UniProtKB/TrEMBL annotation:
Annotated transmembrane regions: 181-203
Lineage, broadest ranks: Bacteria, Bacillati, Actinomycetota, Actinomycetes, Micrococcales
Protein's UniProt keywords contain Ubl conjugation: no
Signal peptide positions on this chain: 1-37
Pfam assignment, any one: AAA_31
InterPro entries: AAA_dom, Bact_polysacc_biosynth/exp, LPS_length_determ_N, P-loop_NTPase, Wzc-like_C
Topology term for the membrane: Multi-pass membrane protein
Family: Belongs to the etk/wzc family.
Name of the protein in question: non-specific protein-tyrosine kinase
UniProt catalytic activity: L-tyrosyl-[protein] + ATP = O-phospho-L-tyrosyl-[protein] + ADP + H(+)
């Protein structure tokens, strides 16, 4: 039952997301079907109805027997309609350029159940000609029945055939039914659109919202950061607009981390992602700023020694930093940069070394993290993507918890599964995930306004 509900929700979500595709295909199907029907030659149908009776006896028994006999012969009479003995005279009378076999394809004979009536329906390209054809066939069928029917003592036919409902030229064509064709095309197009929408959603394994993210791994979702112009150019939303939607989203993540601290204290946070370009540095810098306050000082360490980006958010050079401290070239206080008016310090990556993994797993790195964890309330390690290099996995034992950044526009389910498997295999404690570049929630958009910084 739960799987059925999930499938139904997925189908409805697909329709809501790609409603325009469903509408376009439905309209296209309806228009194409209507155009095809309009291009076909119109056909008209006219029907002539005949009644058969046996003229023998006057008692009730004779009448019943006569009726039973006539019913038994109705199939034979029906076969006569499409025979050459009836159709050849019709062709000659109407001057038709055809053969009895070809003409028989334009005729439909029906016998209502348990009756002695027969209906002849003729289909032609004109209303008048259909009525003329049905009438002519009826007349020549009567002649043929009269000729082959058993004779009475006076030499007359024992079968009487009368036309009780003559053929009338139809006012409207019987086919093609353009309205019906358009409706069928519209329905078929809609079904095709729904199938296409569901297929697109099924093939798309990106984790678009928090529900999909939570169900993909079972790991808690700490929050979601919506697409925002404030984050488009390596900026810090919590500094530019403190009352923006984006700032509020990072404050929600901060609140989620406070609940994580209930079980065990978390001072050193490692933030990573699955692959490059998923926004782990954006999350690291903005979350660090959200965590920083008068009571809580925060140190952000750019531990991505391959493609460092944190210093760009601060607008500093970043040539002196972590690698220089680990090598003993400079002191920590000299290498750190304080964001003005905040309790957030940044330790840039420094000079990019030829051996990043060796530096990150060195005793100096371990001692540094231990030392700064006593000086700061929070220490955040911005590390390389897990599926690119092993650095994040090597650093995870130094952290109290790990946060995985998931990009709603890029990250695939299989990538996230591989990332969590690698991290947990290395002993990492994954506190949760953060969904980056998520679709904004409409209800909140009306309350917050943001401008490009």
């Amino acid at each position: 039952m739960s799987e059925q509900k999930t499938s139904m929700r997925s189908l409805l979500a697909a329709i809501r997301k790609f409603w325009w595709l469903v509408a376009v295909l439905a309209l296209a199907g309806g228009a194409a079907s209507f155009a095809y029907a309009a291009a076909q030659t119109p056909l008209y149908q006219a029907t002539s109805s005949l009644h058969f009776a046996l003229d023998q006896g006057a008692s009730a028994v004779d009448l019943n027997q006569g009726s039973a006999y006539t019913q038994s012969q109705m199939l034979s009479y029906a076969q006569l309609v499409e025979g050459s003995r009836v159709l050849e005279p019709v062709i000659d009378e109407l001057g038709l350029d055809t053969t009895p076999r070809e003409l028989a394809r334009s005729i439909q004979v029906t016998i209502p159940q348990d009756t002695v009536t027969l209906k002849i329906t003729a289909t032609t390209e004109g209303p008048e000609s259909s009525a003329e054809l049905a009438t002519s066939i009826s007349e020549h069928l009567i002649d043929e029945v009269q000729e082959i029917a058993p004779r009475n003592p006076e030499g007359g036919s024992t079968i009487t055939v009368v036309v009780y409902d003559g053929a009338v030229a139809p006012e409207h064509q019987s086919s093609p039914d353009k309205t019906k064709a358009a409706a069928l095309g519209l329905g078929a197009g809609a079904v095709a659109g729904i199938a296409a929408a569901f297929l697109v959603v099924a093939v798309d394994t990106r984790l678009r919202n928090e529900d999909q993210l939570a169900s993909a791994t079972g790991i808690p979702v700490l929050g979601a950061v919506s697409r925002s112009p404030l984050l488009a150019h390596r900026s810090i939303a919590t500094i530019q607009q403190r009352l923006s939607r984006t700032t509020e989203e990072f404050l929600r993540i901060r609140s989620a981390l406070t609940y994580v601290n209930v079980a065990s204290e978390v001072k050193v946070l490692l933030i990573t992602a699955c692959k490059p370009g998923e926004g782990k540095s954006t999350i690291s810098v903005n979350l660090a700023m959200a965590l920083a306050s008068e009571e809580d000082s925060v140190l952000l360490i750019d531990a991505d020694l391959r493609r460092p980006r944190a210093h760009e958010y601060a607008g500093v050079d970043g040539a002196v930093g972590l690698t220089n401290v680990l090598s003993g070239e400079v002191d920590l206080d000299v290498a750190t940069y304080r964001f003005p008016g905040t309790a957030l310090d940044l330790l840039p990556a420094g000079t990019i070394p030829p051996n990043p993994a060796e530096l990150l797993t060195s005793a100096a790195m371990k001692d540094l993290v231990a030392a700064v964890s006593h000086r700061y309330r929070y220490v955040i390690l911005d590390t390389p993507p897990v599926l690119s290099v092993a650095d994040a996995n090597l650093l995870s034992p130094l952290a109290d918890g790990t946060i995985v950044t998931v990009d709603a526009q890029k990250t695939r389910r299989v990538s996230l599964a591989q990332t969590t498997k690698i991290l947990t295999g290395g002993g990492a404690r994954i506190l949760g995930t953060v969904l980056n570049r998520a679709r904004p929630v409409r209800d909140r958009d009306g309350y917050y306004s943001e401008t490009r910084g």
